Amino acid sequence: MQREYFSVILCIIMMNLVKYIAFCGAASRRGAEALVKNGRVFVNQCQKTDPAYRVMDSDIVTLDGKILQPQEKRNYVLLNKPRGYVCSSADKHADLLAVDLIDIPGARLFSAGRLDKESQGAIIFSDDGDFVNILTHPRYEVLKTYHVETAVPLDDNALQRIRKGILDHGEMLHVISVERIGDKKYEFILNEGKKREIRRMVAALNAKTLRLKRIAVGNLLLGPLPAGKWRELTPEERDQALMTPASISE
Fold it and tell me: Which end of the chain is more exposed for a tag (fewer CB within 10 A), N or C?
C-alpha cells in the first residue's frame, strides 16, 4: 500500500491546480475550479486564480489556510436515496441531506450528479474528484437509467415526442431512449442530467410524474439495496458504473 501511495505522489508532477485539488479529495473538478477563481487557493503562500496553473510535486497547496495532500484511501459509495432527501450539501435550507446517510468518519464525499428531492434510487458518492467528474460531465456520456410511473398513460405518440426531444422554457430536453415497461410505467435512459429533466418532459405532455427511481448508473444496478442504505463499491463495480447499460429490469 505504501509503495502504491508513493507512486501516486510521483504522478502529481505538473498536474494542473484544479485536478490537484480534486485529487486531494477537497472538491469535485467543477467545485475546485470555483474555489480557485474565488481566490481561496494558495500555492507556496501565493494566491492562484488560474485553474490551469501547474503544480509541482514540491509545491505546498493550501485551501482556506489548510494544506492539501493526496489521499491514501479513496471512498466510492452507492446510496439508495429515499424521497425527501437533498443531494447538494450546499443547500443551507435542506433539512435532510443524502450525504448524511453515509457514515464514513473523516471522508468528504461529493455526489456524482443529482436526484431531486422527490426522486429516489441510485446515486454515487465519492471523494475522488476525477471519478465524480467522469460520471457527471456530459462529454463522457455515462448513461443513467430510470423507472418512471405517471398519473395517466403516455401513448405511443407521446413517447415518440419524447424521443424526438421536447423544448421546455427554451431548453431542449433529450433522452437516449424511452420504453413502456408496464401500465403507466416507463424506462428512461439519459446521459445529460439536466435539472428535473424527466419530470419536465412528462409535464410537457400534460401528465404528472408520480414516482421516479434511478435504477442504474452505467451498467451498475441498484439491486436490492434498501432505501436509505449504502454500501462501498468494489473496483469492478466502479468500472461497471462507467459502462453502457444492457437491457435493465428492476
Answer: N
How far is 201 from 137, CA to CA, in rounded Å? 21
Percent of the chain predicted with pLDDT > 70: 89
The separation between CA 118 and the C-alpha centre of its own chain, rounded to angstroms, equals 17
- Return the exposure string of 74-102: e unless at least 16 CB atoms fall within 10 Å of the residue's CB, then b: bbbbbbbbbbebbbebeeeebeebbbebb
59, 116, 130, 168: the catalytic one is 116
CA distance 194 to 118: 15
Q: Alpha-carbon distance 46 to 39, whole Å?
A: 10
pLDDT, tens digit, for every residue of 214-227? 999 999 999 999 99
Catalytic annotation present for 116: yes
The rounded distance, in Å, linking the Cα atoms of 172 and 197 is 10
Q: The pTM is what?
A: 0.74
CA–CA gap between residue 140 and residue 136 (Å, rounded): 8
Query: Would you say 211 and 243 are in contact if contact means Cβ atoms under 8 Å apart?
Result: no
Cβ proximity of 146 and 134 under 8 Å: no
